[in-house]
Amino acid sequence: MKYLSLIRRRADLSAAEFRDYYEQRHAPLALQFFPPSLYQRNYPADCAQAGCDCLSEFDYPDDFDLAQVFLSEAGPALARDESNFMQRDFTRTAQAQLKWGRAPEQVAPRSRQLWLFAGQVATEQLLQVLEADAECRAAALYELTPFFCEAFPYTALLCLENPPEAEWAQRLLAFAPLCLDVSSCPSPRC
Q1: Could you tell me if residue 101 is left (phi over 0), alpha (psi between -120 and 50 degrees) or otherwise beta?
Q2: Measuring CA to CA, how many Å separate 114 from each of 38, 56, 97, 139, 184?
Q3: What kind and span of H or E run contains 144?
Q4: What is the dihedral of CA 181, 156, 40, 74, to 10 degrees?
Q5: Taking a C-beta distance cutoff of 8 angstroms, is the pair 114, 160 a contact?
Q6: pTM of whole model > 0.90?
Q7: DSSP states of 69-119 as a string?
Q8: Sign of the Cα pseudo-torsion (95, 100, 105, 107, in order)
Q9: pLDDT, tens only, 64-74
Q10: CB neighbour list of residue 178: distance below 8 Å, 6 or more residues apart
């Protein structure tokens, strides 16, 4: 199961300080407690447009109980460390269910695009566009539902490994997604 968290940096930190702390201190700490099969931090090129400083992706086996981990010693330790660099009250997390495509096999630091869809956009509508075009190879569509929060601002996530120029991408723009160019920093697969 995949989870997506929207994270905002503390107001007294620069974007560079936030990213450095996350990559050098917090990510290694989190990996000690509950190593996911993929832990990927996505830093938007335009944080103001994104409304956050990082979109973190976590992939776990379907039978992994994330809630149980937070009830262990990991919960307080991670919470203490998070307060060193992020606005914990802002963080929103969603469970992401794969609806179409697949995650990339090669996971390395890279640039890519994340398209977030909000409101009444149903994944079925997005699927109709994606399935109609055989060129949509390096893409994965996820349906998002709030996890450990009352609301999540988006209903679907489309991960694009290569910026699209195809006709299908133009049709998806009709759904008014938030299109983010991000710099992705994955931790090695465990």
Answers
A1: left
A2: 16, 12, 15, 10, 10
A3: strand 139-146
A4: 140
A5: yes
A6: yes
A7: HHHSTHHHHHHHHHTTTB-TTT-EEEEEEEEEE---S---SEEEEEEEE-T
A8: negative
A9: 887 787 788 88
A10: 49, 50, 115, 116, 117, 118, 154
